[in-house]
Amino acid sequence: VREQALAEAAQEAVTADGKRIQVFANIGSLNDVEIALANHAEGVGLFRTEFLYLENDHWPTEEEQYKAYSRVLKAFGERPVVIRTLDIGGDKDLPYADLPKEENPFLGHRAIRYCLANPEMFKVQLRALLRASVDGTLWIMFPMIQSVSEIRAAKALLEECRNELKQEGVAVADSIPVGIMIEIPAAAVTADLLAKEADFMSIGTNDLTQYTLAADRGNEQVAHLYDAAHPAVLRLVQMTCQAAEKAGIVVGMCGELAGDREMAEVLIGLGLHELSMSAGAIPEVKQAVRRVDSKTAEGLAQKAIQQENGDQVRKMAKRSQ
Ligand code: PEP
Ligand code: MG
Fold first, then answer.
1. If 0-12 CB within 10 Å is exposed, 13-18 middle and 19+ buried, where does residue 178 land?
2. Nearest Cα to 29, choosing from 47, 2, 13?
3. 203 lines ligand 1 (CB under 6 A)
4. Ligand 1 mean position to 183 CA, how many Å?
5. What is the pLDDT of residues 205-227, one digit of tens each?
6. Read out DSSP for 1-30?
7. 152: burial class by Cβ within 10 Å (0-12, 13-18, 19+)?
8. Which of 6, 91, 114, 123 is the most interior residue, by most CB within 10 Å?
9. Contact yes or no for 281/257 (Cβ under 8 A)
10. What is the pLDDT of residues 166-187, one digit of tens each?
11. Model pTM?
């Protein structure tokens, strides 16, 4: 099975009834670029930029960031690269950022919240992204969005940077899709409102699962309660997909669930257009997509959200293979 998946890895993933599903890679460093290309990623659905900040002992400069973004964009050319802005806080600490100790870091001052509170720092990243935008196909994504005002504030800073660069005579791509991660239950529930301000949405099931099920993603003692296939999570995925469909924007998934080939049929049935995963999973997920009939998948997804727990969903999905 693996051999056949590898042999066909370069081909697109189209369901048996002709629906195209884009299969992208998640990358978290420049080394991951080669692995993603070798596995025939059709683009990058999530470029985690934290490494630039974590491997330095200072805030990475605009130039340092520009070089990294530009390299990845050039490597993928016409294929889209979704670069996510800094997602610090939670479990990811930065010694030089002087983050305050928090009782509940995952519910605290992290990601877009931290960035909006530190606009001068955030603008360094936004400027670097805009400068790199002419080197490939850049999509910008904001993490941990909770409500519309955050998207508006982040987009306003992006516009400010665009104007500054224009004044400086620096070239910037004309149209850069700006999207958001759906990883807070509130965002999934109000996805129809958020969709009005976003060009695309990508579901982060790692965080969405921990917040929905109130089970810390890194705590082994509650690991048995943490399952991205739980029907509660899947219902939020479906709500998000329906809102995206209505708004006419692309919706993908970049959490770990997207790389589970046994769940591909359910995920397509819920309405996802794009799946982004660690590169090694791409060939087998593409193969799984090719076996799916999207009408049957819709029925399976409706059954999945009626199950009692994630185990039942996974068993059901496996039986359907
Ligand atoms: C997620 O939360 O699902 C996600 C993709 O982001 P991260 O794992 O970096 O928090
Ligand atoms: Mg996340």
1. middle
2. 47
3. no
4. 8
5. 999 999 999 999 999 999 999 99
6. -HHHHHHTTTS-EE-TTS-EEEEEEEESSS
7. exposed
8. 114
9. no
10. 999 999 999 999 999 999 999 9
11. 0.97
